[in-house]
């Protein structure tokens, strides 16, 4: 039984597709930057190594025998692993394959390209890559979803082109590792600004390699795309990688296997903590656990100039590079607290010192705020600090004074922030859709989810204060929670399993959304009547669950026609929602329903780390039984990967094993675990709680780890 995955364990299923099929282009990272791997056999885009960005600029499009490869109509098969993407295609008399990696330790992408002559005659095959760049170096935070790009000038070099912005502060050096014909495009730069899809991307030039192939013979060459803030830096990176492209490919595999091993190993040198290993006979549970771990590790960013030293981005490879969203980070809260608590602590200090009611995230380039306020922020910050404290036992954080006040005072403020948002009634009014789910027009104002979260905030902070000896402060917050919870429960619509959103005029608008189901279930399940809990589970089964994924909004909800965005609408779900829905099922007393769902849900872990949204099977046909990732094109604008993947780690540790390390108690409460119903022999090994390493067994027994 494998306890630690390697790159093969996490490989995506091969996917063959034609030009512009409904396939989300995958991403690669080496923690210094990211790149998008496009449909074409060699094309890459969004090659971004902060502080150098290139927007979504596409380069290295492939021509074979003088013809654009994509125009042949041949399907191209993509095979993703954490370390690489292998692409392959068959043309008349030719087999072509490429392996693309982000070179470890370098601000560079490398592609190893091989061509095999499957015909019965010798031939010379010209392979041309058209090169473009949009290298930019923005000193300010990247405040738009797409990273900055700039017009570049191109200059010829030996088997390469060197691109630079006007100021000479951002460089992109691209070329091959063998003798080649290189030429500039000869096309005059376009006047003024232009948009991708309208004016296109300016071509700097192209590079052509001629491969002499006997029948049955294979020949190769390598392409390298390196960036830097100076010509010397970009050129040096290019030359180091181009000197051994096959070595860069092998190095990427070794690099990623080291990261995965370190992530589950106490005392490793890559992370400030580690995740416990999961010993189980349930292939589905193991797959989801590893999926969640990969999807968190994937977003580690260690680039030079990162204001936090290390951060964890939220999306990649298309949108919001260098931004960490408070909401998404909180959905992987337990994972961060266990895997890398030191960067988590730095991120928390930074956010606590800021005004969390004015932005949704932070730029790792500047430390400055990004975006508008999200209503979830008080709940998210309380959850983050609570999980950090209870798993690390670093209660000294409460005495620190980011923002010139002790952290315990910030906690109290977050727990009471809802009071300033009350309208005419007892609940907080969270405003319009831009502060909530963005694409559900009826989910506005007094929503059940965040008002239930306010009850949880009050009780959680009360528990922290009680553990610190502030019994009066704890009692006051607990009393507030008890007074508030009935008003939240009053939003429930009896007999339906779902809640209403109360509008400023008192109207109660029914909303059949999973976010209410998940947050209410995971925060105040014990306060609900037994019949309400049963009806909520029935609603989930009847209207939200699919075989392999989840509908965020019931298709029976009138608002299902409002938006095609699959992260929060009827046609799909944001990646944390299935995990949190399963956590809610356990809390509502229906673990058997969650357990029954796992095999189908685990099939959706077959396309790399969790996407920002996956389609339901009714909306788009699945990929080998797994819910298909949604693409970045309009109208979906969905990224290929999202950091909230850590919610699946929390599902295993907190819900199935019932792990609840309470502050003020030396015991580890596992009384609410249900893993024995799935696998009576399961063990969570090497869980760190403070300075103690423990094994948690399916029967709830906790022993010191060997």
From TrEMBL:
Xref: InterPro entries: 6-hairpin_glycosidase_sf, 6hp_glycosidase-like_sf
Designated name of the protein: Uncharacterized protein
Source species of the chain: Glycomyces tritici
